[in-house]
From TrEMBL:
Domain YopX protein residues, every copy: 3-140
Organism (species): Lactiplantibacillus paraplantarum
Protein name per its UniProtKB record: YopX protein domain-containing protein
InterPro entries (alphabetical): YopX-like_C (IPR023385), YopX_protein (IPR019096)
Pfam families: YopX
Length: 141
């Protein structure tokens, strides 16, 4: 299922789109609310410098707690490496150059495995710990 959420750049909060208008396949205008049912609805452009919303697409995958993973989410995964617990924070992004969702430099589906194929250490299944709008500081680790 194709789903979106909308980051409201003015109110600094995540909303659910009630309506998205497309022109020639490009998202142009959106109406969004806190509940996805027109309650407290906002509307505005979704493309360009003056855009009110940043649309983020559902990846089709879920985290360890069963939450939907969207573009812009920050995932945490931990590995026990030589007796030391290492936590990585990875941003989920749509990579047009590879036509898919990526988590760091790996395809998103590869980040959801039980083993890190590069270093062969068991790791925890990723958990959503925030998003790039409210928790960008997590990516500085």
């Amino acid at each position: 299922m194709i789903k979106f959420r909308a980051w409201d750049k003015i109110q600094n909060k995540m909303l659910l789109p009630d309506n998205i208008e497309f022109i020639h396949g490009q998202a142009y205008w959106a109406e969004a609310s806190t509940d996805g049912q027109d309650g407290y609805s906002n509307d505005g452009a979704v493309d360009g410098i003056d855009a009110l919303f940043k649309l983020e697409q559902f990846t089709g995958l879920k985290d360890v707690d069963g939450k939907d993973i969207y573009e812009g989410d920050i995932l945490a995964t931990s590995s026990m490496i030589y007796g030391k617990n290492i936590t990585d924070y990875l941003k989920v992004e749509c990579r047009e150059d590879y036509a898919g969702f990526y988590c760091g430099e790996k395809p998103l589906f590869a980040c959801l495995g039980e083993w890190d194929n590069d270093i062969k250490f068991p790791q925890t299944y990723p958990e959503i710990v925030g998003d790039i709008h409210r928790n960008a500081d997590l990516l500085e680790h």
